[in-house]
Amino acid sequence: MTNVNDKAYAVTDYLRMIVNSWTWARLNHDERNGFLSAIDWAQEQGVLTGTYKHRWMICEAIYMATLNGAGYKPTGWRK
């Protein structure tokens, strides 16, 4: 992880972390692209602002919305 004092790296660090997650591995191509498009949109609109932690939490909210839209369940999802 990059220095958490440098907020410019929050999105990059989040994406680096999420692509190694088991949930990411179970998303299909369209769902992954939808998430990445939402992150791009948030950056373009200036929504991803604030501290490193704040930016990380915004990315987490977008990812959780993606997972919920894909029918995510904590156990037994897309085995």
What does this structure look like?
The chain is an all-alpha fold. 61% of the residues lie in helices and 0% in strands. The model has no long low-confidence stretch (mean pLDDT 93).
Portion of residues in helices? 55-70%
Profile the largest sheet.
Answer: none
Number of domains: 1
N-to-C span? 29 Å
> Which stretches are poorly predicted, pLDDT < 50 over at least 5 residues?
none
What is the average of the pLDDT values?
Answer: 93
Query: What string, H for helix and E for strand, traces the elements in order?
Result: HHHH
Q: Could you say which overall geometry the principal axes of the C-alpha atoms support?
A: globular
Question: What would you report as the Rg, rounded to the nearest angstrom?
Answer: 13 Å
Number of E strands: 0
Give the number of helices: 4
Strand content: under 5%
Structural class, please? mainly alpha
Oligomeric state of the chains present here: single chain
Topology readout:
Blueprint: H1 10-18, H2 22-26, H3 29-44, H4 52-69
Keywords:
mainly alpha, 79 residues, globular
Kindly summarize this structure in a few lines.
The protein has helices spanning 10-18, 22-26, 29-44, 52-69. It is an all-alpha fold. It has one domain (7-69).
